[in-house]
Amino acid sequence: MTQPVPAATMKAAWIERYGPPEVITVRETAMPVMGPHDVLIRMRASTVTLPDCAFRAADPFIVRFFAGLLRPKAPIPGGAVAGEIAAVGENVTRFAPGDRVFGTTDPLPSAMAQYVALSEDAPLALMPDALDFGEAAGLTYSFLTAMPFLRDEAKLQPGQSILINGAASSIGTVAVQLARHMGARITAVCSARNADLVSSLGADTIIDRHTSDFTSVSAAYDVIFDVVGKSSYLACKKALKPHGIYLTTTPSFAILWAMIRGKDAQGRRGKLATTGLRPLPDKAKDMLVLSEMVAEGKLRGVIDRVMPLEAIAEAHRYVEKETKAGDVIIEMPR
Fold first, then answer.
1. What is the pLDDT of residues 76-121, one digit of tens each?
2. Residues with Cβ < 8 Å from 231, sequence gap 6 or more?
3. What are residue 270's phi and psi, to 5 degrees?
4. Could you say which of 139, 212, 234, 262 is the most buried, measured as most Cβ atoms within 10 Å of its Cβ?
């Protein structure tokens, strides 16, 4: 039989309406219900990202089409999972109680809580021994975003030139490492204070975002990856080589229109990829790739700061300032 879940409550972040960070509270709520193919994860860490802030504030408005038109459909935010298996369903074969695991609940948020229930076939993998829970939480979100952009959308090849705008962000720090692993020539846009960090991750050239305009050059890059959504396809088009591609993580009507219009006369195009909505089996395979790359020392996490669950509103406020380098990790109460 499925192992029983204690009839108890757990602490979780909670959002009932869209708004500023103050709308997030921490409350007691029911434990998740397990099925025979599910695992119950005792959460140790998750992470707050810019998309989390966007979905909390419903800004840009277009996120309401994904998260709920009038109010959030899922009150517990967060997608990054890092913790230990507390119990398994009767039909589970991949995991056992005590296993250290990391993965994601996306596209359905629910990770910012003490416990999460997921199918054993979810995007979930055993953590490499050298990885701590904070790093695991941050890498999960960033890798599952950056890898499909670079591998599947850009089809980044050795020797190609890529500019990464927001290279010190959570996605950016992973994107720089992946682009280096793929053999690309990397130009990184970030603040001067983060130049040494980004260079250590593999960037060849650093552009100070406060003093230089990376869009002013002509036909310089095969790929522009705007991981923070602070530019646009229209602004970046001149900087792309013929047949180049502009990629953004931020949904907007402008990028959707660019995708509808398709390639221009020189074969340049813009693309938004909804990586969180990819098929679960594809994300599950990429979790295994992530685990292998970390174990082989090809990828490392970058943590800006670690905060307790009770400071979740403060964490959102800090992430919205867009001054962090790497991930803001939330530790769950034990």
1. 999 999 999 999 999 999 999 999 999 999 989 999 999 999 999 9
2. 165, 215, 224, 248
3. -120, 150
4. 139
